[in-house]
Amino acid sequence: MPKPLRPGARISLIAPASPASDEKIEQALTNLKNLGFEVKEGVSMRKRLGHLAGTDAERLADLHNAFSDPDTDAVWCVRGGYGCTRLLPDIDFELISRHPKPFLGYSDVTALHLAIGQKTGLVTFHAPVAAGEYTFGSFRQLKEVTQNGTTPFTINKRVYEEVVADSPFEPYAIHEGVAEGELTGGNLSLLAAMCGTPWQPSFKNKLVFLEDVGEQPYRIDRLLTQLLEATDLHKAAGLALGVFYDCQPKNSDFSMSLKETLLDRLAPLGIPAWYGLPFGHIPEQVTLPYGIQAKLDSREGTLTLLERAVK
Question: What is the pTM of this model?
Fold first, then answer.
């Protein structure tokens, strides 16, 4: 486990995937300063190479430098996008093991979380990117998990205003029950992309959390089918799904709804599963530590962190 992310900590801000606009970078700097942190920019963070934030070598150097820098207390990704999987074969995992620090981000950063966890055992954090929107609730829970190490900590289903059936914010049980296990998962598209690679995760006996954005139901079907056929997802202890924002069909006459798709693919597994927990590509996003024990109650719509994530 990394050390707690204390007030006044120095954050190395990096872009390991896609480039961020100047506006987003300024938002990230403001966010972290408003959270009480000092910020040190990665050398290559403002670079741009098409859809990438600089070359693979430049982005990898920023990642390595952030972990090895004795003046850096934590490593935070400015955004996701695409590009993290390109770095995996060349990451110096021994370096990261020697310098364990809080590592935060989500979406494309899923690839780094999984690889670091597999090779080092370090607890990392599926958390809002630095340029994201921070609500009071997301900030409070981030603090409880990364600073205070509060345990147990229960994350409740978010009660959204004006929730209607088949909306992306409608919470519901896919299969009722209670399950405990080690937390793993992340962005569904990234998990599918890692199938057949050395970084393909194992889900057996684990609590798997999933989210995605901008994928129509037939694509969600395709991604879940790939995981079900290529991995041991069917042996997971339980499934905790966040908000799949902008994943409704473009033409409902020729598509199942998102809810129908998730029920069709996941309910037959017969394991506790819940949709609509407050994480994903939404402002009200909780922080989930990889590698700690947690409990899912899909009758009540709660996910409880059972272990500290910091020492």
Answer: 0.96
